[in-house]
From TrEMBL:
It comes from Collybia nuda. The keyword Signal applies. One of its GO terms (molecular function) is hydrolase activity. Residues 1-25 form the signal peptide. The keyword Signal applies. This is Alpha/Beta hydrolase protein. Residues 92-212 form the Fungal lipase-type domain. Keywords: Hydrolase, Signal. It comes from the Eukaryota. InterPro entries: AB_hydrolase_fold (IPR029058), AB_hydrolase_lip/est (IPR051299), Fungal_lipase-type (IPR002921). GO terms for biological process: lipid metabolic process.
């Protein structure tokens, strides 16, 4: 199913803008602008379709691929879906951005809190946005379980997380979590309009954990 065209246009503008300027989420400094290859641009365009599809009420074939499951927290209204691309051999987790009163309440929780996830070694001093953390925790167990099920029946597949705005922050938290729990699986992350998700210790941890070819924001 095609994503909404108004969102499509806005997000494409963000893709072009963000991909031209790389920003450290934990630092106010903006690094030197640099061009990107056609292949990277194509990937950014491809995965933003997943990100925008998360806003749809129903999408039977996200980006033309298999819809595995949807998740929807009654507590936080955090929503998204898991899809499987058998051509690319990857599992895609897409998070919806702010689209409901509950989402905007989550956005308003701007304080920092320690990032604690079971069985994940977290570096000292890592703090994340309280609202984004609350939203991710409300669906984390379900997402991790369903991704693991897909990987068990599709060995060798990689994992991609993606999302726009609030969904971008959730993609970041999900991406680092999945990277740590799925130690033998390639995990990549594509975020669009991602707000600052944590402190510098968090941003540094994410940058260290993901190679430059596996993290795009």
């Amino acid at each position: 199913m095609k994503p909404p065209m108004n969102l499509l246009a806005r997000t494409l503008f963000l893709v072009i803008t963000i991909s031209s300027t790389i920003v450290d989420a934990g630092s106010p400094d903006v690094l030197e602008k640099r061009s990107i290859s056609a292949a990277v641009y194509d990937d950014l365009f491809f995965y933003y379709k997943y990100a925008s599809s998360a806003y749809l009420i129903t999408c039977a074939k996200p980006n033309g691929n298999t819809l595995v499951s949807r998740f929807d927290s009654s507590f936080s209204d955090t929503q998204g879906f898991i899809a499987r691309d058998d051509r690319k051999k990857e599992i895609v987790v897409s998070f919806r951005g702010s689209n409901s009163p509950e989402d905007f309440l989550i956005d308003g929780l701007v304080g920092l809190t320690p990032f604690n996830m079971t069985n994940i070694p977290i570096p000292p001093g890592v703090m994340v946005n309280e609202g984004f953390y609350t939203a991710w925790k409300s669906v984390a167990a379900e997402v991790i379980s369903n991704v693991r099920k897909q990987l068990s029946t599709n060995p060798g597949y990689s994992v991609v997380t993606t999302g726009h705005a609030l969904g971008g922050a959730l993609s970041s938290l999900a991406g680092i979590t999945l990277k740590e729990v799925l130690t033998n699986t390639l995990v990549r992350m594509y975020t669009y309009g991602q707000p600052r998700t944590g402190n510098k210790a968090y941003a540094d941890w994410v940058d260290r954990t993901f190679a430059s070819t596996n993290l795009f924001r």
